[in-house]
Amino acid sequence: MPRSPGHVFYDRLQAVLVDAGFDAFAEAACKPYYAAKMGAPSIPPGRYFRMHMVGYFEGIDSERGIEWRCADSLSLRDFLRLETTARVPDHSWLSKTRSRLPHEVHEQVFGWVLSLIAEHGLVKGDRIGVDASTMEANAALRAIVRRETGETYREMLKRMAKESGIETPSAEDLVRLDRKRKGKTLSNADWVSATDPEAKIARMKDGSTHLGYKPEHAVDLDTGVVVAAEVHPADEGDTTTLPGTLKAAAANLANVDRAPNPAKPAELIADKGYHSRAVLKDLDGGVWKTRIAEPQRKTFSRWHGDEDARTAVYANRNRLRSEVGKAGMRKRAELVERSFAHNLERGGMRRTWLRGRENVHKRYLIHVAGHNLGILMRLLIGAGTPKEAAARGKRLLIVAQMAETAVFVILAIDETGLGILVVIVSTDPA
User: Fold this and answer.
1) How many other CB atoms are there within 10 angstroms of residue 172's CB atom?
2) Structure-model confidence comparison of residues 94 and 83, the more confident one
3) What is the CATH number of the domain that holds 258?
4) How many domains does the chain have?
5) d(Cα 161, Cα 169) in Å, to the nearest integer?
C-alpha cells in the first residue's frame, strides 16, 4: 500500500522512541496487567501512551477528539504503528485500558521519558521551581448536593422560596432569591459533587468558581523540564501540597542520578503562597535550599521562643535577597508559568473530561511526558511541536543584497525543517 510522506516531527519523534526501546519498556511494565490468553486483543501499551502524547502535541482535551484526530491523519497512524486498514482505538478502549493500568505504570512511563531526556543533558536538578494552577473538573456546580442530607442546590432554593412565601417559584424567582440571600457560601465541608466526589469547589485562574483539581509542577529552571507533575485536591493550600510534590521530584531526580542531598542541596524557588514558618523549618538543613518569596507584613514577627523557625525564616530571607535569588525568581516566573501555558492552555488540559483524581493524574502524567519530549525535540530539530516544525518548513528569508557585486543570497528551510537551500542570482551591475 502507498505510504504518506509523513510529518517530519512525528517521524523524528518515532525514531527517538524506537531507538530508545520505548515499546519494549512499555510492554514489560504493563505485562502483569494484561491477560495471557483470555479476551479480545487489547491496545498495545506503546500505542496507548503514544495516543495520549498526541493529545499534548495536537492540543486536544478529550480522548474522543484524540481518536478522531488519529483516524484522520496518515502521519499519526504511522506514529501509532497502525497497519493501513487497522482500526484506531476509540475513546472507550482508551478509558478501559487506563482503568486497568495502575497509577504506578503511568509514573514509570513519566520517569522513563525523564531518563531519556536526562541522557541528552536536559535534567540538571540544581534549581527547582514549584508552582500550582487550577484545572476544571468534569462536573457541574449545579449538580452538587449537601453532604448530610443529599439535598441538591436547586432543592434547597425551592425550600427557601417556600419558606419565604412563594409556593410555586419559577426559575427567575430562584435566581433572584439566590442572588439576594445573605451569607451565601459554597463550602467543600458542606457540599460535594454527586458525579465526581473528589473534585473540589475552587476559584479558577480566570476568577470563576468551578469544581476542579490543582495541578502542581516542579520544574528544572535550567532547562524547563517538568521533573514532577502532581494533581492535588483543589481546596488544599500550597503549603499543604508542597511536601508531596517535593517527594515526587526527589524520587524522579534520584532515578536519573540527580537527587539532591544535604551535602549538595538543590535550590527550591517558589512564590509567597508557599511561605510559612512550618515549611521553612521542616526544609531547613535538608536536601532543599529554600528561596521562597516572603509576603509583606506590616507588623514585627513574634517567635515565642521558636528559634528554629526564626533561623529558617531569616536564612531564607537572606538567600532570597541575593543576586542569585533574584535571578532564580525571574527564572521561576518564566519557566514554571510557561509549563502551565504549554500543558493547560495550548495542550488543552485546562478542563478535564475524566472523573476521579487518580484517573485525571494518570492522563496528566503522560500529557506532561509529551511536554518533556517536546523539549527534547526542540533540542534535536529546533521545533517542539508539529505546528512549529511545519512552520519552519515554510520560512523564507532574504539575507542581503551586496551592491558591489549585485548578488542576491536567499536562504530557505526545506520541507523537512532541517536542510538549508542557498540560491545565488547574479545580475548585471548596471
Assistant:
1) 8
2) 94
3) 3.30.420
4) 3
5) 7
135: nearest Cα among 207, 214, 192, 188:
214
259 belongs to a structural domain? yes
Spell out where 76-116 has E strands.
none
22/47 Cα distance (integer angstroms)? 10
Q: How many helices (H) and strands (E) does the chain have?
A: 15, 12
Whose CA is closest to 252, among 365, 145, 134?
Answer: 365
Could you read off the pLDDT of 346-397 as tens digits, one per residue?
999 999 999 999 999 999 999 999 999 999 999 999 999 998 888 876 554 4
pTM value surpassing 0.85: yes
Neighbours of 158 (CB within 10 A): 18
Residue tagged 490468553 (cell numbers): 37
Closest CA relative to residue 1, chosen from 77, 85, 71, 89: 85
Q: Is 188 in the same domain as 311? A: no
pLDDT in tens, 99-113: 999 999 999 999 999
Distance CA(394)–CA(169), nearest Å, equals 62
Q: Coil, strand, or helix at residue 147? A: coil
Counting other chains too, the contacts that 306-312 makes at CB distance below 8 Å and 24 or more residues apart are 306/277, 306/281, 308/281, 308/284, 309/277, 309/278, 309/280, 309/281, 311/284, 312/277, 312/280, 312/281, 312/283, 312/284
DSSP string of 236-275, one letter each residue: S-HHHHHHHHHHHHHHHHHHTT---BTTBPEEEEE-GGG-
Please state, rounded to an integer, the average pLDDT across all residues of the chain: 88
Q: Are residues 330 and 410 in the same domain?
A: no
